[in-house]
Write a structure and sequence with these properties.
The complex is a heterodimer of chains A (about 325) and B (about 170).
Chain A: E1 9-18, E2 23-29, E3 44-48, E4 54-58, E5 69-74, H1 82-88, E6 95-98, E7 113-119, H2 124-135, E8 141-147, H3 154-162, E9 166-170, H4 171-174, H5 179-183, E10 190-196, H6 198-207, E11 216-220, E12 235-239, E13 244-248, H7 254-260, E14 278-283, E15 286-287, H8 295-298, E16 301-303, E17 308-309, E18 313-316
Parallel strand pairs in A: 7-8, 7-10, 8-9, 10-11, 12-18
Antiparallel strand pairs in A: 1-2, 1-6, 2-5, 3-4, 3-6, 12-13, 14-16, 14-18, 15-17
Chain B: H1 9-13, E1 20-28, E2 37-38, E3 41-45, E4 49-50, E5 74-78, H2 79-89, E6 102-105, E7 116-119, E8 122-129, H3 134-140, E9 154-160, E10 162-165, E11 169-172
Parallel strand pairs in B: 5-6
Antiparallel strand pairs in B: 1-2, 1-6, 1-11, 3-4, 3-10, 5-9, 7-8, 7-11, 8-9
Classes of the chains: A alpha/beta (about 325), B alpha+beta (about 170).
Chain lengths: ~325, ~170
């Protein structure tokens, strides 16, 4: 039987800690304790959970410690189900596939002072960022942590509390503080960041309206849709022999659409040069974009890893 | 005129390139996506691959392991390409980032397809040039796909196994 492509990083659940306020802290490691791919402070990864669910979590450890990925997960009974699986089903020793880390806070070297605003479990990217700032000798930051009652991850916040780097705001007692007063006015060499519930982020974005864009960082629980080429249009991809049609969305590759249909297309470079994924086309006008086919070959074939369609419908000989 | 060049292998075989190179870096990783780790020496197993590496035949934990390839037991990369990337494209690529196993200096890898050569005490046969892939851009976060076209390294079979160390000579078979 042909082996399936490896699409995720294989990790093992090394430890699971109770971190208070309905939160569990998971450490994911390589089976041989090899280093994991590096990450920026506060980057996030997708976890491929049992049952096929994919969920995104921020890393909360120092990027210098890439022997493990640490994520904090709050059990949400009315959430989308990922936290329930992690809390109720996942055990130490289980295997979980994760993606390469993405994103993270832009802690530029020309910024010397930071103000972070976090709501509840939204503190996780800032735990990673503040660990990195402390270790690299940039201790001028303040983390405003809002939570109803006991904050999550109190044991990770304790050292920051001792040094005066964190201010806890119990919103059950005094409500949410005025975010504008926490971040202050824009000043050179200062940057601000926020992660938390959507309404908190809305308030933060209003309060930071006068700040330059490159000094403001917002982490959302649900990632926004990635920007796509404004000229890109969806099209129908028709497989003549299989008698299957599928819609290819703007920004999606034809290869991804075919793999999504379970069509086994041999692909390798995914950049239009190796020639592995050549497929013949029958109708429509392909947009080729490859660097491997000659004009004569393009008259009958295309490379599905990079090709698009100039028409609303493209028919492949598959 | 290009169409007057005789590309028959018999003619190629009559010319023995004159070079001697050196092993600058050695790297392996046990699984797809994981960082390559610098090693002082590697153990090459005849007909199989490198001990501990993802593409060792039978292990099959590499990104391309679902495409089995007998000629991918060990991969080489030119140190000179790292210098050229910095010089021509202002890209700093470390010897652990190109994801080939052996970084060599002074070895004309693109000339070696179909030839045998010594890597330290091991004997290799070059099967094909490596091809850059978008996967490496995902891992490194660096736009290196285009600059690596035609200089992305060499795939080889291991004809005689043994231990390869940093500093070992790389020599032609004479």
């Amino acid at each position: 039987m042909k082996a399936a492509p490896i699409t995720t990083i294989k990790t093992i659940v090394d430890t699971i800690e109770d971190a208070g306020a309905g939160v569990k802290l998971f450490s994911l490691v390589d089976p041989d304790h090899w280093d994991l791919p590096p990450f920026r402070p506060g980057a996030h990864i997708d976890l491929h959970l049992p049952g096929g669910m994919v969920r995104t979590y921020s890393l909360c450890n120092d990027p210098a410690d890439n022997g493990c990925y640490r994520i904090a997960v709050k059990r949400e009974r009315v959430g989308r189900g990922g936290s329930m699986i992690l809390h109720d089903q996942v055990k130490v020793g289980d295997t979980i596939g994760v993606t390469l880390p993405r994103g993270g806070l832009p802690l530029d070297a020309d910024v010397s002072c930071f103000a972070f605003v976090a709501g509840g479990i939204g503190v996780t990217p800032f735990l990673s960022a503040t660990a990195w700032l402390r270790r690299t000798g940039r201790p001028d930051f303040k983390l405003h942590m809002m939570a109803r009652g006991e904050p999550p991850l109190a044991h990770l916040l304790a050292p920051l509390k001792q040094t005066g780097h964190v201010v806890l705001h119990d919103t059950a007692v005094a409500g949410r503080p005025d975010i504008a007063s926490l971040i202050g006015r824009p000043s050179p060499g200062m940057a601000i960041g926020c992660c938390g519930p959507a309404d908190m982020i809305d308030d933060f974005e209003k309060a930071s309206r006068d700040w330059p864009d490159n000094r403001v960082h917002v982490e959302r629980f649900v990632p926004p849709v990635l920007p796509v080429d404004p000229n890109a249009r969806p099209y129908m991809l028709v497989l003549s022999r299989s008698k299957i049609e599928t819609r290819v969305e703007p920004g999606q590759t034809m290869l991804a659409a075919l793999l999504g249909l379970g069509i086994d297309v041999p692909a390798s470079c995914c950049g239009g040069i190796c020639g592995a994924c050549k497929v013949d086309w029958l109708e429509g006008r392909p947009v080729h974009r490859d660097r491997v086919l000659s004009p004569a070959e393009r008259a009958r074939s295309l490379m599905v890893c990079v090709a698009g369609s100039a028409d609303d419908r493209l028919v492949l000989d598959l | 005129m290009l169409d007057t060049i005789d590309t028959e292998p018999a003619i190629q075989g009559a010319v023995v390139p004159n070079w001697t190179g050196v092993v600058r870096y050695l790297h392996i990783t046990p699984r797809a996506f994981l960082p390559m780790r610098a090693m002082p020496e590697l153990r090459l197993i005849e007909g199989k691959g490198i001990e501990g590496d993802r593409y060792m035949i039978g292990r099959e934990e590499g990104f391309y392991s679902h495409k089995p390839e007998e000629g991918r037991q060990v991969t080489l990369f030119e140190f000179e390409t790292l210098v050229a990337l910095k010089r021509d494209a202002n890209i700093e690529l470390g010897p652990g980032e190109h994801r080939r196993n052996v970084t060599v200096e002074g070895v004309p890898l693109t000339h070696l397809v179909g030839r045998q050569f010594w890597l330290g005490e091991t004997l290799l046969e070059a099967t094909r040039l490596s091809i850059p892939c978008r996967h490496i851009e995902d891992i490194t976060g660096k736009a290196i796909f285009d600059p690596l076209i035609n200089r992305s390294g060499l795939n080889c079979k291991i004809l005689k196994g043994g231990t390869v160390r940093v500093g070992d000579a790389v020599r032609n078979v004479r």
